[in-house]
């Protein structure tokens, strides 16, 4: 925990306070997940599939925000992915 705090402080010191804080949550019942499940399977039976679909959607969102300059020019960004049990 201490390491993350120091990393965040270094980022703020170099780039200033963040302008945006964006949160993205995975829906295990996204169509891209459910159509790939075998009969009788639930999303929790295929964490690999859920993680791959989430990562693809995350990349798409990051491209929109950063490369697409949806909120303007991006000087720096940080992202963290957390998994729940």
Unreliable parts: none
| Alpha carbon gap, first and last residue | 19 Å
Which structural class is indicated by helix and strand composition?
Answer: mainly alpha
User: How large is the count of helical segments?
Assistant: 3
List the helices and strands and how they pair.
Elements: H1 2-15, H2 31-34, H3 47-67
Write structural notes for this entry.
InterPro entries: Helitron_helicase-like. This is Helitron helicase-like domain-containing protein. It holds the Pfam family Helitron_like_N. Residues 1-85 form the Helitron helicase-like domain. It is a single chain. By secondary structure, this protein is mainly alpha-helical. 46% of the residues lie in helices and 0% in strands. It has helices at 2-15, 31-34, 47-67. The chain is elongated and about 50 Å long. The mean pLDDT is 88.
């Amino acid at each position: 925990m201490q390491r993350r705090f120091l990393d965040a402080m270094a980022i703020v010191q170099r780039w200033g306070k963040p302008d945006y804080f964006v949160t993205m949550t995975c829906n295990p019942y996204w169509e891209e997940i459910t159509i790939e499940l075998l009969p009788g399977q639930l999303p929790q039976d295929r964490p690999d599939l859920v993680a791959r679909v989430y990562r693809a959607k995350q990349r798409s969102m990051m491209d929109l925000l950063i490369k697409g300059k949806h909120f303007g020019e991006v000087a720096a960004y940080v992202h963290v992915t957390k998994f729940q049990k």
